[in-house]
Amino acid sequence: MSLTVSPHLLAEAERGEVAAADFVACVRSSLPYAWELISRVVDDLAHGDADFADNVIPPPSEQERGQLLRALASDAIRSGLEQHFGVKLAFQNCHRVAAFRPSAVGGERYRRFTSARGQLLNQSPELRDC
Questions:
Q1: I need a labelling partner for 40 at 20 to 30 A (CA). Which of 59, 60, 96, 115 fits?
Q2: In the prediction, which pLDDT does 82 show?
Q3: Exposed, middle or buried by CB within 10 Å (0-12, 13-18, 19+), for 56?
């Protein structure tokens, strides 16, 4: 299961639309490693001059790797995180997450990061099982 959904949040979903803040809070508490990693990348972006910031450190365990995969493989979770943080997230392999400023989407660095070439160049033997 990707998220630990409280009875209150489940009831909210059953009644109709869920408040974005409630959904993001659920993600934050359910996927703490993914939240911390993405928060750190977004913070690096906010405090730098570049159009993007990324993480190149693999997760410490399969549990953390699974959290990151669940967070970024879900359209709803990824979209919720992007809206919350005001960035565009991009993902390679099992750990390389980048946060781009919205103005950089479509730019050269974004195109390189999200291209087939970028994906292939980011491969290494130790990452083949992720």
A1: 115
A2: 97
A3: exposed
Provide the β-strand partners of residue 53.
99
**Distance between CA atoms of residues 108 and 7, nearest Å:** 45
Report percent pLDDT > 90 for the chain: 72
Q: Which two tokens stand for residue 126?
A: 């130790």
Give the three-class secondary structure for 53. Answer: strand
* Rg, C-alpha atoms of the chain: 15
* Cβ neighbour number for residue 122 with a 10 Å cutoff: 13
Structure confidence at residue 30 (pLDDT): 97
Amino acid identity, position 99: A
* Distance in Å from the first CA to the final CA of the chain: 19
**Tokens of residue 40, six digits:** 């750190």
The model's confidence at residue 114, banded by pLDDT at 50, 70 and 90, is: confident
Burial grade of 45 (CB within 10 A; 0-12, 13-18, 19 or more): buried
Write the pLDDT tens digit of every residue in 11-56.
Answer: 999 999 899 999 999 999 999 999 999 999 999 999 999 999 999 8
Closest-CA residue to 42 (of 87, 109, 104): 87
